[in-house]
Amino acid sequence: MKTSENIWQDGFPSNIIVCDKDGVIIYMNKQAQKAYAKDGGAKLIGKNLIDCHPEPSKTKVKELLQSGKPNSYTIEKNAIKKFIHQSPWFIDGELKGLVEFSIEIPFDMPHFKRS
Hints:
CATH topology: Beta-Lactamase
Radius of gyration: 15 Å
Structural class: alpha+beta
Largest sheet: 5 strands, antiparallel
CATH class: Alpha Beta
Number of strands: 5
Number of helices: 3
């Protein structure tokens, strides 16, 4: 049964993937399952995120899981630009894994400085 605690993620129009501290995928929202359908979609849950990446990404994910630091960058693939944000998640101060957001962004995205 769905609860209000997990409904918003499945309706979020960008990819959300969560792994545990060992890199094992424990959650993919519906958008991520659809985006990675050719790689197995929901069947990727339970697989290791590190094994899903080539180098140097494998090494980067391992570093993030050890350091607990976030990582952000943009990519362009198939004429689509995306913002990727990988962030650690914690319970009671203990590193539990990573959350990765992959969000489509415009090529000419405004940038504002605020005080």
